[in-house]
Amino acid sequence: METSQKIDHKLVYIILAVTIILFLTPAGYAENLREKFIVAIDIGHTKNCGGALSAHGLDEYYYNQKVAFLLLPELIKSGFKKSFIINEDGSDISLMGRTMEAKNRKADLLISIHHDSVLPCYLSKWNYQGESLYYCDLYKGFCILVSDDNVTSKNNILFARLLGAELLNRGFSPTLHHAEPIKGANRKLIDPEKGIYEFNKLAILRTATMPALLLECGIIKNRGEEKSINSDYRNRLVNAIVAAIGQYHEKPRP
Ligand SMILES: [Zn+2]
Q1: Could you tell me the pTM of the whole model?
Q2: How far is the CA of 214 from the centre of ligand 1 (A)?
Q3: What CATH number has the domain spanning 38-250?
């Protein structure tokens, strides 16, 4: 009896020691903090309303979902274990419904994943596999949309700058076509180098109660860019997002 009690005590001490080491070493402490930080990944659009139609005839939703499904396991692997995808099955949902879900699930950060298009005046027609489709090869690149008009605006911009920098580091370049001085564009650029635009009226950004941004991963109306999106582009992009979230999480925030 006494021997088994001694063993029990020993076991308790060992568990305690391991727990203390895990929590107090810098790596264990950081890991523990990451676990508590929740990232909500929003897949732009739905199965029924697929967003922009690509130059090769695929819905934007298809591309958004691919990025989200690649991003979530990478975030979990890097320690953000409670991260989740909003509306994972692609069913119909309002924009408010998306931000409500992020709030209800206590997200600390929201990233909405989209792929970009261009104004109709830039589109040309072509035939692809017997289908008549629209394309525009004039513009390519990513851009980041943020609200600088709500309580989280400073953190929105902080996160956007970190993401823009990480994308540039990996060889991506921003598209500035949304800032052109024509009707339908004319968006204010907050940081042209990093492709960051102000978009205060966008519902998903306006109604988010946590820092948020919308990433247009690339322009799927551009035939070449759409092809490259289907190569290693997506992996590099996801690496940039994970790195930016890691940095955002560690930075002292306003
Ligand atoms: Zn979209």
Answers
A1: 0.88
A2: 9
A3: 3.40.630.40
